C-alpha cells in the first residue's frame, strides 16, 4: 500500500490527477479488530481505484461504558476537521463493505446528504424502505451540512436511535436525502458476521421522542471529550477516547476553530 502512495495516518492522494473530492472516512470502533483488518485491506484499494483524496479515521472508545456511536462520529468529525480541510465526511460502520467499484464514494451535494448502504445482503439485496433510511451503515454528508445539523446527539449511549434522530435533524433543515442514481446491483453491500449482542439503551425511545427539544443544544455544540491518544498509524489515523466515569470531570471541549 505504501508503494501505491498511501502515507502515514491512512491518507492517500492520486499522483497523476487532482481528485475532485477530499473525503474523510470516519469509523466508530470498539472490539472489532478482525473486522477492522478486513475493512482496511479491502477499502484502501477500493478507494484508490476511484482516485479519491481521502483519509481514514478510526475513533475507538476504550472504556467499559455502553458504546456511544453518535458521540464517536462527532469526535471523528472534529478531529478530522482539525487535521485537514475535508469537503465531506463518510460515516461508515466497520462491518459493512461495498461490493462494486461503481459505487463511488464521492462527496454529495450540499443540502443533499447521501444514504449509500440501502442494498444489503442481510436484506437479500432488496432496497430497504425509508423507515430504515439512516439505520447505520454508510452515510455521506458535506461538512457544511453536518455543522448546520449540529452533528449527532451525544445522548444515545448503547444501542439507540441516534441515526433516526440525525435523520430528523437534517429533515428539520429541509435537506433532501439522496441515493446514488445508478442500478441497485452496483450498490450492493456485504456485512461481516459479528455477535449481535449489544448493550441496549432502555431509555432510547424517550430520548428519541424528546430529541427535537435538544436539536440546538445537544451535538457538536456541547461535545466534550478527552482523546487519550491520537496516533498516525500506517493504515489509519487512530483517535482513542476514554469516557469512564472517573474522567467525566476531566472532559474538555474541542471547538472547531
TrEMBL record:
Subcellular location: Membrane
Pfam families documented for this protein: Glyco_transf_7C, Glyco_transf_7N
Listed pathway(s): Protein modification; protein glycosylation
Keywords annotated in UniProt: Glycoprotein, Glycosyltransferase, Membrane, Signal-anchor, Transferase, Transmembrane, Transmembrane helix
Bilayer topology term: Single-pass type II membrane protein
Major subcellular location class: membrane
GO cellular component terms given for this protein: Golgi apparatus; membrane
Galactosyltransferase N-terminal domain mapped to chain residues: 6-108
GO molecular function, one term: N-acetyl-beta-glucosaminyl-derivative 4-beta-N-acetylgalactosaminyltransferase activity
Record bears the keyword Glycosyltransferase: yes
Domain Galactosyltransferase C-terminal: 133-195
Keyword Amino-acid biosynthesis: no
A single GO BP: glycosphingolipid biosynthetic process
Family label: Belongs to the glycosyltransferase 7 family.
PANTHER family tied to this protein: BETA-1,4-GALACTOSYLTRANSFERASE (PTHR19300), BETA-1,4-N-ACETYLGALACTOSAMINYLTRANSFERASE (PTHR19300:SF57)
Protein name, per record: Galactosyltransferase N-terminal domain-containing protein
Source organism: Daphnia pulex
